[in-house]
Specification:
By secondary structure, the chain is an alpha/beta fold. It folds into 3 domains: 40 residues, no CATH class; 320 residues, Rossmann fold (3-Layer(aba) Sandwich), CATH 3.40.50; 88 residues, no CATH class. The strands form 2 sheets. It has a 9-stranded mixed β-sheet, sandwiched between helices. A hairpin with a 5-residue loop joins β1 and β2. It is globular and about 65 Å long.
């Protein structure tokens, strides 16, 4: 009898999960989260509610373009990105790229971007893309950025990347892999894939499985975590620390070569703050969670996977500070380091929360930061850091873990070794234009001295430098 009861309970649980999942993602995630759980949808999307003061009253021109790319399995694919710009804007204008998730036009941020005469681009999003975040979606978002740089009307000296949650992950990864980004903002980013997707999300699922039928312990997790599960297929060897690190922002955080601001909350139940910095994680655990629930990174993970983003960053180029909301609206703090980490204290993690604890209010004004970075342009914001240069050398050679190179498929499509090489030449050309070839050569030689294979890296650089001299 007990066995029958257990089977029946499991069956009911599966039905409940399926109904909520299909209802939520089949209609609208951000709208349904609010209605199903009582949690404000903006807490999940990390975008501010539109006010009359922020509304742009001009005409907006919209365009959808198709971005071809080669998937990791070698097949060709296409996905769309949407681009919006004020009709009154002329010439080459700054661009904000929103990676992974689609930009909601009914937000204060989008309307402010339009008011400032900036273009905004983001992918057309389907929930299935969460499941390939670390694989094909990573390639696609790099391809999207590459495509946008070649569009008429885009000021390549003033491109910013702004993302939240999984989009925050993508924002960090784009900054680590590419040059040519003036500045970025990553809100509540997943920075340690091993911890967040392999350790933490399964623990959340187990907690929910042990919940009562009518009282789900972690409602947001029930709606979200399963959509990321297939990312684990991208890590066939769970102990391959090098692969986990390479596909996590912590693995190449020293490759950040332009200003990046990370905003995170202590009450985040989706992306625990411990993976960003261990300084402000609350020690207490909600009584609805087990005593061993992993609100902190473990100490026995493979390689560097027990480390936070702050721990792996260059200590000379990171600034971490804690803030409390003094009022409902504040300018986003930032400094002169390559990496600014802002931790907003909204108390301990609450199972009923999302990226913030329930009841957290207030909004960040990111416009002053973006305005300053755009005024400085890429010439003043970009640094030729050794780790970035070595990643470019690696990708030029076709050895990138993050962006696998393909040959013999289509040399005109992003994902091919030919396009990767062209991309790197163009990025380095832009750096030379803003600085000089001699300055780049000095930086590259310094980077090569740190390489595991100095001879091969130097041969690759000499080939690249020859092409740069010919341009």
């Amino acid at each position: 009898m007990n066995k029958i009861v257990k089977i029946f309970k499991r069956f009911i649980w599966v039905i409940v999960c399926a109904v909520i999942f299909v209802t939520t993602f089949g209609i609208s995630l951000t709208v349904k989260i609010s209605s199903l759980t009582g949690i404000n949808a903006n807490s999940f999307t990390l975008q501010n509610e539109l006010t009359d003061e922020a509304r742009y009253t001009g005409e907006i021109v919209r365009e959808t373009i198709s971005v071809p790319y080669i998937k990791n399995d070698g097949s060709e694919d296409k996905r769309n990105i949407s681009i919006a710009r004020p009709k009154e804007a002329v010439g080459n204008i700054p661009l904000i790229y929103i990676p992974h998730y689609a930009m909601d036009e009914n937000t204060a941020e989008f309307q402010q971007y339009m008011s400032h005469g900036w273009a905004v681009a983001s992918p057309v999003f389907l929930n299935e893309y969460n499941g390939i975040l670390t694989g094909d979606d990573l390639v696609f978002n790099n391809a999207a950025l590459y495509t946008l740089r070649h569009m008429e009307g885009v000021d390549t000296q003033r491109i910013a990347v702004v993302g939240g949650s999984a989009g925050g992950y993508m924002s960090l990864m784009l900054n680590e892999l590419q040059m040519g980004i003036s500045a970025s903002i990553a809100n509540s980013p997943i920075s340690n894939i091993y911890y967040n997707l392999y350790i933490y999300f399964p623990a959340c699922d187990e907690t929910n499985r042990n919940s009562g039928f009518l009282s789900i312990t972690m409602p947001i997790q029930l709606l979200v975590s399963k959509s990321f599960r297939t990312n684990l297929n991208n890590f066939p060897d769970v102990n391959d620390a090098e692969r986990w690190a390479a596909l996590s922002p912590i693995g190449n955080v020293r490759a950040l070569s332009n200003p990046v601001v990370v905003n995170h909350y202590t009450g985040d139940i989706l992306v625990p703050v411990d993976q960003i910095t261990k300084k402000y994680t609350y020690s207490e655990i909600d009584d609805k969670l087990s005593d061993d629930f992993p609100i902190r990174l473990g100490t026995d993970y493979p390689g560097i996977l027990s480390h936070s983003l702050e721990e792996e960053a260059d200590l000379e180029e990171v600034s971490t500070k804690r803030y409390e909301w003094e009022n409902q609206y504040m300018n986003m703090p930032y400094g002169d380091k390559l990496l600014t980490i802002n931790i907003f204290d909204d108390g301990p993690m609450d199972p009923k929360g999302s990226h913030t604890a329930p009841g957290t209010t207030g909004s960040l004004d990111t416009i002053p930061y973006l305005e300053e970075m755009f005024s400085r342009t890429l010439k003043e914001t970009e640094k030729a850091v050794p780790e970035k240069l070595l990643l470019l050398i690696e990708r030029y050679e076709g050895n990138s873990i993050q962006l696998p190179a393909h040959e013999g498929i289509n040399d005109s499509v992003y994902g091919s070794l030919a396009v990767y090489r062209q991309e790197i030449i163009e990025e380095l050309q832009q750096y030379v234009k803003n600085h000089s070839l001699s300055e780049l050569d000095f930086a590259m030689q310094s980077a090569i001295a740190l390489s595991d294979d100095n001879t091969q890296a130097n041969e690759t650089w000499q080939e690249i430098k020859k092409l740069l001299n010919e341009k």
